[in-house]
Amino acid sequence: MKSQRTPPPPDGWETLSSELHYESPHLSVSTVEVRSPAGRRARRWTIAHRKAAVIVAPITQEGKLVLIRQERIPIQREVWEVPGGQVDNPGMQDLSALEAVALRELTEETGYELAPGGSMTELGDFFSSPGFTDEHSYFFLARPVERGAAGPAHTESETILDCREFSAGEVAEMIRRNEICDANTLGMWAKLVARGYLSLGQ
Length: 202
Fold this sequence. Notes:
The chain has three helices and ten strands. By secondary structure, the protein is α+β, with helices and mostly antiparallel strands.
């Protein structure tokens, strides 16, 4: 599997100080003073530090994309999105470990699993909102998938209300109507179309 990861930052970045304001198991906030390779003076920036995450595109044998409808407390809305989750162990950054987390999130959130002969494909990585957070997420394609016998196993922190299969045309229409509006799903959609895994004619 050829890696599609973002290259590391260039040399020349220097962190002069860091002040921690808040820390929890899922998030920390700090203000840093940083000098960049292009800057003559240091700059202060408040950063929300987040664990790495995996984002999964489950596609069935028929070419349909599996989405979940989940309540999101920060925006107080229910949104259709691809499954995903945080990588709890910060040391799990090799592809096999990330792939294992992606498979676990797929099964837990949707109840789907890889069909016999199915495989996981790395599609690259991205930063969800680099203006305020260092959250680094990894895209995976799971294909083909099928419903598992055990069904979903949501955690207590999740409120997943529905799980359905959608054709590419249906997803495109949901994006046009702004029914799909989260960065993870929009980024995944762009990646799938650009790499030729989904056709708008489907």
